[in-house]
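Record Lipopolysaccharide export system protein LptA, 178 aa.
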Amino acid sequence: MALLVVVLWSSGLSAFDMNSDAPISVNADHARLDDMAGRATYTGNVVIVQAETSLRADRVELYRDAEGLSRILAFGDPAVYEQAETSESPETDARADEIEFDAASHLLTFRENAVIRQAGDIFRGDLVRYQTENRVVTAERGSSDDSAQVEMIIQPRRQQNSGSNPATEDGNGPADRN
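=>
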């Protein structure tokens, strides 16, 4: 099984913030709440939104414990996780057949056909885990022999001032004049 761990993700991917005052909005064609089990199941065109984060899927299961919302499981063909660009992080587009968020461990897991795009970087594998607090990405290929290897394409760091300065290109910048 191929395994690759990267601590280079360009910016944080925050997932859903259970400590935020921003509400989590859920829309779907059908909803079923099992209050005793602490589980809500949404099916058909499910859209979950909190601030700049959204999740779209065919089916989503939300789990609650004494602390509140503890786990989100999303299934789709694919399920889509998106986070809009903010001043702290670039836009993120992540897709997989199954997406899981575990609030206690701050872990986002993308299973089966996972592709995550952020700031030109691409992370692809059968299993991609993102530890949101430590900003560590782990990617693995599937267990079958014909499973493709993991793939990560990481863009080089871009310089802050990529433009050239004509006053210094010819060696006649301010320090060279006299």
